[in-house]
Specification:
heterodimer, A: about 240 residues, alpha/beta, 10 strands, B: MetI-like fold
């Protein structure tokens, strides 16, 4: 379970997160939507401290992320992250990308590590690409490898930061499919996304952010079919008209 | 016109000794410089202001003064001040190492900052420590990009070792001078000395092309 209380984040004088409080239950899939600049990516990046938190508390499982005594590297082992621009390691093969952290963080022995990596590659549908280098893969394939790489650490939570925003349209589907399967397997997921169809279909709860606040949250049908707040209505009108 | 092949032939054994000493000093100095450069380069990209400051001071001092002055300072100046004796060879290696180290530090710094911040974030998000991220993700990518700049500095430093003739190290240039002082064959001997330097550096350049091709930047 993830609990966020009164989270605030400023970059210099700019307040990006003004006062965020929410809870994510185990096995819940939460989609975070909102206009660009609303703070949704920053919110996600605060959860594993890729951004330093200005004030407030975040608790993941029984670890208080925001406590200065927390070993942040240990926490990050349990919180997987997938980035908009994949950030695969270009000097390593697909398999080596997946095996790197288990080898050097968990000291997993080579045979188990490789078995697990091959299994994960199969799960994201890329078993044949194990010895390729990332620059030989399409965007959709890269993102699926990135998901496998994060899963290799056996995280309890997966954070997705606009995982399909950098993809050509025809590759969005294959990535969303992998994410859907992950959700079905019971992974706790927080997904910052512009894919309204995915949010409606897969999310247990949708959070709408604007101006550094959570404006409204609820089940997909509550939020998409009868949004209460006018800023939510305006945003949904804008994006749904554009055929998302 | 007066040209003596015999003068060159007679000089070859002594010049070859000089080549070996030049190579020895260059190789030892560059190995040390590589380590100094790596440490100073890491310091200059660190979060600590003190480490960054120390690296900047070092690089600025070395780059802001001539190598010849650095050689004199280390060989003549330091021993007087510290009341110690050091051999010309040690002083020479120290001077060339410290000098090349400063330039190599800048090569490392530039290579490290050229790596996308996302690479670091991805590694850290997997639970890798800062040092492991540097060692396993950033440096392997950065060093590939740095190969041409390294080679450039190696070439400069090999030629810089000729300055060590001023403190009496019998490397290639000094060997030439000694020979000329007895046979007065300036044209033949300086020409041969030049050819020796050229061949060493040409071979190094070829070698580096091979290495570059093996480590294609991905």
């Amino acid at each position: 379970m993830i609990t966020v209380q009164n989270l605030k984040k400023s970059f210099g004088p700019v307040e990006v997160l003004r006062d965020i409080s929410t809870t994510v239950r185990e096995k819940e899939v939460v989609c975070v939507i909102g206009p660009s600049g609303s703070g949704k990516s920053t919110f996600l990046r605060c959860l594993n401290l890729l951004e330093e938190v200005t004030s407030g508390t975040i608790v993941i499982g029984d670890t208080e992320v925001t406590s200065p005594r927390t070993n942040i590297d240990r926490l990050r082992e349990h919180v997987g992250m997938v980035f908009q621009h994949f950030h695969l390691f270009p000097h390593l093969t697909v398999l080596e990308n997946i095996m790197l952290a288990p080898k050097h963080v968990k000291k997993m022995d080579k045979r188990h590590n490789e078995e697990r990596a091959v299994e994960l590659l199969g799960k994201v549908g890329l078993a044949g690409k194990r010895d390729e280098y990332p620059d030989r893969l399409s965007g959709g394939q890269k993102q699926r490898v990135a998901i496998a790489r994060a899963l290799a650490m056996n995280p309890g939570v997966m954070l997705f930061d606009e995982p399909t925003s950098a993809l050509d349209p025809e590759m969005v589907g294959e990535v969303l499919l992998v994410m859907k399967e992950l959700a079905r397997d019971g992974m706790t997921m927080i997904v910052v996304t512009h894919e309204m169809g995915f949010a409606r279909e897969v999310a247990d709860r949708v959070i709408f952010m604007d101006g550094g606040y959570i404006v409204e949250e609820g089940t997909p049908s509550e939020l998409f079919d009868s949004p209460k707040h006018e800023r939510t209505q305006a945003f949904l009108n804008r994006v749904l008209k554009n055929g998302s | 016109m007066d040209f003596s092949i015999q003068a060159i032939a007679d000089a070859l054994p002594l010049l070859w000794q000089g080549v070996l000493i030049t190579l020895k000093i260059a190789v030892v100095s560059l190995l040390i410089a590589f380590v100094i450069g790596l440490i100073a380069g890491l310091m200059s990209t660190s979060r600590s202001r003190i480490l960054r400051g120390a690296a900047t001071v070092y690089v600025d001092i070395i780059r802001g003064t001539p190598l010849l002055v650095q050689i004199f300072f280390i060989y003549f100046g330091l021993p007087v001040f510290l009341d110690i004796r050091i051999s010309a060879e040690i002083a020479g290696i120290a001077a060339v190492s410290l000098n090349a180290g400063a330039y190599i530090a800048e090569v490392f710094r530039a290579g490290i900052v050229s790596i996308d911040k996302g690479q670091v974030e991805a590694a850290r998000s997997l639970g890798l420590s800062g040092w492991k991220t540097m060692r396993l993700v950033v440096l392997p990518q950065a060093i590939r990009r740095m190969i041409p700049a390294f080679v450039n500095q190696f070439i400069v430093s090999i030629k810089d070792t000729s300055l060590l003739s001023v403190i009496g190290i019998q490397e290639l240039t000094q060997s030439g001078e000694i020979i000329i002082s007895t046979n007065f064959r300036s044209f033949e001997i300086w020409g041969t000395v030049g050819i020796f330097y050229f061949v060493i550096i040409y071979l190094l350049t070829r070698l580096s092309r091979l290495i570059e091709r093996r480590f294609v930047v991905r």
